[in-house]
Amino acid sequence: MSQQKTYFIFGAGFSGKVFGALASAEGASVFGTTRSTQKKAELAAHNINPVLFDGTAITPDLETALQQATDLIISIAPGEEGDPVLRNASELIANAPNLGWIAYLSTVGVYGNHDGRWVDETTTCKPVSQRSIQRLEAERAWTDFARKNNLSLAILRLSGIYGPGRNALKNMVEGKARRLIKPGQVFNRIHATDIARSLLFLSQQSADGIFNVTDDMPSPPQDVVEHAALVTKIDAPEPIDFDTATLSPMARSFYGENKRVSNAKLKSIGFQFTYPDYRQALDKMWSDDNWR
Known about the structure:
Elements lengths: L5 E5 L3 H12 L3 E6 L5 H6 L3 E4 L7 H9 L2 E4 L9 H11 L6 E7 L10 E2 L10 H19 L3 E7 L1 E3 L5 H6 L5 E3 L7 E3 H13 L4 E5 L7 H12 L6 E3 L7 H6 L5 E2 L2 H5 L9 H11 L4
Parallel strand pairs: 1-2, 1-4, 2-3, 4-5, 5-7, 6-13, 7-11, 8-10, 9-12
Helix pairs in contact: 1-7, 8-11
């Protein structure tokens, strides 16, 4: 790593922990927030210095850690009252003496529905769900904040996240896989390792702008289940018609957005994916026995 980095992650969850382990292996210091005292040990196990943040209160530990940060990663979802980090810590962040770069982890949901057509970073956003509308508002708020404070900002629009402990292989082995069929529906996906690697890559360049962090293979969801069945040698579950399936409102809402998301911009500046598609990823996770 060319310069000594100190990362501060607001919301060190599934992807944040993978990033913490990767960045610390590169010689960086990493701080990350959790709401729960019980999860502190889990963060420490990924070489993340744990800091408590309940979404509102700024503790002395949090303030001290932010003062050291060269790079800030925002991985907390906004709510009805906007982005909780901007609402409660914007002044602290604006005055952080070493800070030069911010990453905001957003979602490809901000594009909305495009009936299976390709979208890229220049596509007009027309979010459908409330959570995606809030994400787009948060993207704009962070863009305004970064411009006002002369900070570089990378917005990473992520597709469906999977990795060890959260994947189709685990669902198949545990008997939780569902093979939903909705004709014409496709989704992109992204392995948590590639989120972590793209963050490291973009931070080392102090990259500014919007980047789709997503795989090369937008595919029907049943294809992933069928490949997981092939890999695990377990019979695929019976197909279920989407229209008659019992789904939570949130799960059903995901199927209201149908698009193919391009990652060409990120690759054009030199990033190479470890897991460019779900087939390679599931095969490798199974052979390495790290899918659990």
